[in-house]
Amino acid sequence: MPFLEIPSGSVFYKDSPASEPSSSKATLVLHHGLGSTHNYHQSIVPALTAAPYNFRCVTYDAISSGVSSLSTAPQSIETVAEDVTAVMDTLKIQKAVFVGHSFAGIVAAHLAATKSDRIIAAVMLGPVLPSGDVAKVFEDRIQKIKEEGMEAMAETIPTGATGSKSSSLQRAFIRQLLLSQDPKGYQSLCAVVQGAKIPDYDKVKIPTLIIAGDEDKSAPLSGCEEIQRRIGSKSKQFKVVEKMGHWHCIEAPEVMIESIGEFVNGSV
Length: 268
Fold this sequence. Notes:
Blueprint: E1 3-6, E2 9-16, E3 27-31, H1 45-49, E4 56-60, H2 77-90, E5 96-101, H3 103-114, E6 119-125, H4 132-148, H5 151-154, H6 157-160, H7 168-179, H8 183-194, E7 208-213, H9 221-230, E8 236-241, H10 248-251, H11 253-267
Parallel strand pairs: 3-4, 3-5, 5-6, 6-7, 7-8
Antiparallel strand pairs: 1-2, 2-4
Helix pairs in contact: 2-3, 4-8
């Protein structure tokens, strides 16, 4: 199994080369959300590495997720962002487009505001807008995991966080992603969301794309619209997908492929 050694631990990763590496226009670093793994993006990576897009795509299990190491120290948006650049450094990626889902949408905004020398464009899939209400939700979730384990999440999230067009197969995949998590790792990343501060959206000057689901209860459309309003970039795009919930790449992979592919081709 391929692992990268970075300061915070061992990271399981998949480096998918462009079909024509010599003419590849961009490298994408794709970061999954809470309760997920690198497999979240495997519905879109094969198409993004092939013509007409021809991108290199790097996916990985974040620290405290999947088969990567559990964090030995408290995590935060800042430490997760440091892991992103550490992965890039280890793979000798100087510049990349960052694609972040859910809480990694917060990471995307943080990187876009602070590391524009490395992150040249950012895609946010259902980005969470930090708030007191969000913090309380994740405080409660941490306690529930301590009492009931990951089964409690597997019984509710696949139906509660998906849209009306989601299939039973899609919900089964989400259930498996959740059950593959170590409860301690999941709690650690819940604490990341609980403690997240509002990024300096106004300092984001690189091209951005936000994709929101009109049935997303985890990152509601209103919050995504507010993030879009606050972003300082003059090159910012916003797309709403009807009848989609929070699990974008599982619920609507074809839309993600086209939207991300066209955005990157037009932005870098």
